Amino acid sequence: MFPDFVRPLVLSGPSGVGKSTLLQRLFAEYPDKFGFSVSHTTRAPRPGETHGKQYFFVSRGAFEELIENGAFIEHAEFSGNLYGTSFETVRHVERDGRRCILDIEAQGVRQIKQTTLNPVYLFLSPPSMTALRARLQSRGTESDASIQKRLATALKEIEYAKEVNVHDVVIVNDDLDRAYELFKRVALGEKIPYSGLPPLDDGIDELDAFINR
């Protein structure tokens, strides 16, 4: 019934777009069907985060040693911190008979496309750039400098997502319940029509001024 269910699902999208919220709802509704590929990172834990659950929090030295040992499917540096997905975390999920879901930045997507992983690629898009900025600001955990970096990175991620055949599915998170229903259908292996990205050109001049101020 679900021919794509056995393939890993790569979820990507700008920081602040709502990936974590969708994943939390999916895992709560289907606790036995999916497994999250827990990434390694050199950034410090945020309040409420636990080692081995949200991330494996490691030192830069330990991360670089893992790179040298070929432990990662993909790895990237973002906002001064290293992030990586290890082969072992994906294998661990698959051994448990669950579909592995990977939350990956655009740099990682490029790297995965050079491997034999053969996942389904899903891009979660904001409805607008101004909405994305508002979401990042509402977190209350980001400095202005951090928000500027994340928005600049978001622009690059969106430009990459616009390229042909980069993603199999695009979901616009303009309404959380609607976005979750679509995300759930994809996660369960259903194929939905490719809709493409919204224009995302609203307030670009204002956004550039915010980033470059």
What's this model, at a glance?
This protein has 213 residues and is of the alpha/beta class. It has eight helices and nine strands.
Distance between the termini: 52 Å
Share of helix among residues?
A: 40-55%
Instruction: Tell me the β content.
Output: 15-25%
Low-confidence stretches: none
Q: How would you sum up the major sheet? A: 5 strands, parallel
Strand order of the largest sheet: 2-7-1-8-9
Q: Residue-averaged pLDDT, rounded? A: 88
Describe the structure.
The protein has 213 residues and is an alpha/beta fold. The protein has helices at residues 19-29, 60-68, 87-95, 106-112, 129-139, 144-161, 176-187, 204-212, and strands at residues 9-12, 34-36, 39-41, 55-57, 72-78, 81-86, 99-103, 120-125, 169-172. The strands form two sheets. The chain has a five-stranded parallel beta sheet. Strands 4-3-6-5 form a four-stranded mixed beta sheet. Helix 6 packs across helix 8 (204-212). The model has no long low-confidence stretch (mean pLDDT 88).
Write the layout of secondary structure elements.
Elements: E1 9-12, H1 19-29, E2 34-36, E3 39-41, E4 55-57, H2 60-68, E5 72-78, E6 81-86, H3 87-95, E7 99-103, H4 106-112, E8 120-125, H5 129-139, H6 144-161, E9 169-172, H7 176-187, H8 204-212
Parallel strand pairs: 1-7, 1-8, 2-7, 3-4, 8-9
Antiparallel strand pairs: 3-6, 5-6
Helix pairs in contact: 6-8
